[in-house]
């Protein structure tokens, strides 16, 4: 890899990579395809927090959540999918991953494309629920916002460099603080590591015609984490998400850009803990620690 970011050389990231192994889990008949996961925290917890990255991200972008929350007894799994070309195929693969890990239900924290897929998975498994709750960050409910339905059919044949430039064009050019610069640089490094087929499949999932049937998720506990500064999606998309989930709890960050889980990790981690706390001492607790020991 030619590009090296400061964040990937930080003690925190190096500590994460040295202490939490990257696992490859094959759940499909195609042995060349495997989910990449980092599983952090007590394995006896059967309703963990699962983090799903945006189109540009790899599983390790949630290392700040994995380290901080697992230290509080919360099981955190960061999952990166292999190549899937439609949402149903992705949902079926994710269901098989949960089965393999022995997870009946999970709390899902999804960013951008990860948030959209988390919603679609909750919808996909509505008759036999596999999602205990959702935390949605800078995400959307309808792919129509990308106006790229026709292009989705040709992403598979575009060069990797073209696909990377398409994604990076959404990273923003507004004035940002050092933490946000670090986050962008780290995400650029992660993006550079992704092969053409994976980028093409993610952009295809992002742009294929589809929408979330939000009324089916009306009874699901949901927290929406949003930033108020510039990020890839418009205010109209944000407002549509609010309309779809009128009972969702709103966690607003003044700033944070496209990647607040990196640039504003303390705030995001706090909101994640607040969301998960409602499940303490229930069958859907994400932690193995008694309530009295948590802060």
In DSSP terms (H or I, runs of 4 or more residues), the helix count works out at 10
Determine the strand fraction and express it as a percent band: 5-15%
Multimer state: single chain
Widest sheet: strand ordering: 1-2-4-3-5-6-7-8
Helix content: 25-40%
According to DSSP, the number of beta strands is: 8
Largest sheet: 8 strands, mixed
What number is the mean pLDDT?
91
Give the H and E element order: HEEEHEHEHEHHHEHEHH
Global Rg: 18 Å
| Shape category | globular
Q: Gap between N and C termini, in Å?
A: 40 Å
Contiguous runs where pLDDT drops below 50 for at least 5 residues: none
Give the helix/strand class: alpha/beta
Summarize this, please?
The chain has about 300 residues and is of the alpha/beta class.
List the helices and strands and how they pair.
Elements: H1 11-19, E1 22-25, E2 35-40, E3 49-52, H2 63-70, E4 76-80, H3 87-101, E5 106-111, H4 113-124, E6 131-137, H5 160-168, H6 178-192, H7 196-207, E7 222-227, H8 235-244, E8 249-253, H9 260-263, H10 265-277
Parallel strand pairs: 3-4, 3-5, 5-6, 6-7, 7-8
Antiparallel strand pairs: 1-2, 2-4
Helix pairs in contact: 2-10, 3-4, 5-7
Task: Record keyword descriptors for this entry.
8 strands, alpha/beta, eight-stranded mixed β-sheet, 295 residues
